[in-house]
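Hi C.,

You asked whether I'd gotten around to modeling the 403-residue construct. I have! Everything is below, sequence then structure, no commentary in between.
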Amino acid sequence: MQRHMQVHSGDWFCRWVSILFIVLLVSNVWAQAPSGGALDLGKFPIIKNLPDPFLLNGGTRVATRADWMKRREEIKELLFQYQYGHMAPPPGNVKGSEISAQQVEGLGASERQILLSMGPAQKLTFRLILTVPSGDGPFPVIVKGDLCWGRVPSAILAAAIKRDYMVAEFDRTEVALDSADRAKGVYPLYPDQDWAALAAWAWGYQRVVDYLVAQKFVDGKRVIVTGHSRGGKAVLLAGALDERIALTAPNGSGCGGGGCYRIQGEKSEDIGAITARFPYWFHPRLASFVGHVDQLPFDQHYLKALVAPRSLFSTEALGDLWANPLGSGVSYLAAKEVFKFLGASSKVGIHYREGKHEQNAEDWNALLDFADCQLQGKPSGAAFDKLPFSNVPEAYSWKSPAP
């Protein structure tokens, strides 16, 4: 049955004023950073299924590890150019000043609050909270940048401490606001960079790693990064780019994270929805592909593939339809082809649970189990490669090159 809506001319005027305001706001925000110009989509071929990560820009296919290293750099530039913008280089001057230190009663751990400073004239500062097991270490560390949503619950901290993991918490929004405002945080310090918020947050994770690997009580070879939702998107980018990170663990990261752009599950967020609601998370070029996602020259399995051959573990919730749990499973399978090529099939895993959009105790326990297995050689009876879907769509036909 056709439905009709009567719209008054005044309503149309208000609507167009609102649209014009949004356009002007976004234009003003991005006038502060190079845009790279409008895209001519006629130059982008249509790729219906997931694109082949092994296909070099020149048209030949990866055959050796040396080829893959070349392809890896090509993929990074694709992602910088069309999704995240280019990140500032490491500042090389990260410093930490201890603000406070105390024992955490009943936890068998100490809490240390550190003020990190970095960048031009040490102008960027943000707080880091360390929960450290008793003893001298060095301890593997789990870095989480979601302090803007509150502390890691004490029960989860206790579970990590019991297994001798320290936890490092910071607020990524102290690095870059979770808004279109580019007048604060890291942006004014690097005015020539065209990065968006996800790249800035990933850069913040990397600066925390700068500090941690210089500390004697930290095991610099066992650095884990995790984050939830938009924090998980940032974590995946940080882990893809920073080879000091041994285990990358996004949780419920969805569109622009562990999900697929081309493969959408029921009621899942797509490229149009995310770039409309959160344009400042991404470089403006990404929005050019709204309605043309099959011309996007990559999909998120490319980002996951950059983590290989280091460890990657995604945690997803079946009831979290907006975060596209189906698409996350497909991108896991596609990225696993790269892990397989690099002899690291066992280093990529995924875990599904029932429930909603959150990072809860089950997600954390699965992460700790995977970390024990990957980084400490402890056996686990858990399966880290099971997809709970009866009909996973055939999303690609390519395979990893023969050894």
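If it helps when you're writing up: Residues 1-403 form a domain with the Rossmann fold fold (CATH 3.40.50.1820).

Thanks,
B.
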